[in-house]
Amino acid sequence: MAAVSILVSGKVQGVWFRKYTLEKALQLGVYGTVRNLDSGEVYIEAKGSEEQLKALEKWCWQGSPQSKVRDVETMPIADFETPTFRIVE
After folding, report:
1. Does residue 36 carry a catalytic annotation?
2. Which member of 35, 36, 70, 86 is catalytic?
3. Of the residues 7, 17, 38, 75, which has the maximum number of CB atoms within 10 A of its CB?
4. Which residues, in sequence order, are CB contacts of 4 under 8 Å at separation 6+?
5. Out of 18, 35, 70, 86, which one is annotated catalytic?
6. Catalytic: 86?
7. For residue range 32-78, what is the model confidence (pLDDT) as tens digits?
8. CB atoms within 10 A of CB 2
9. 83 HSE (CA, 13 A, CB side)
């Protein structure tokens, strides 16, 4: 398993981006969290196989139906423990 952070910028808050990210992550079998940042970006920490994480990153460029993604930055991070994927308020 690998772990990454994904920073998504653009019109990604107030457009159900976190909800759709949760649904996609659960569909892919990815573990982690998604949260809004004060900067207007969405921050994801995800853990899964390389294939699962690539699929999540690719999905982030599409995002929720009303989002307008400008950029997606992915960085490897240290492994972490979490039992599922969840939205952090």
Report:
1. yes
2. 36
3. 17
4. 45, 46, 47, 53, 57, 74, 75, 76, 77
5. 18
6. no
7. 999 999 999 999 999 999 999 999 999 999 999 999 999 999 999 99
8. 15
9. 0
Phi-psi region of 11 (alpha: psi -120 to 50; beta: other; left: phi over 0): beta
Kindly tell me the sign of the dihedral angle through the C-alpha atoms of 63, 44, 27, 3.
positive
Bridge partners, 35 (sequence order): 43
Could you tell me the pTM of the whole model?
0.96
Domains identified in the chain and CATH numbers = 2-79 (3.30.70.100)
Exposure string (b/e) for 52-66, b if CB count within 10 Å is 16 or more?
bbebbbebbeebbee
Q: Extract the runs of DSSP E, i.e. beta strands, from 2-41.
A: 2-11, 31-36
Q: What is the mean pLDDT of residues 1-6?
A: 96
3-state DSSP assignment of residue 62: helix
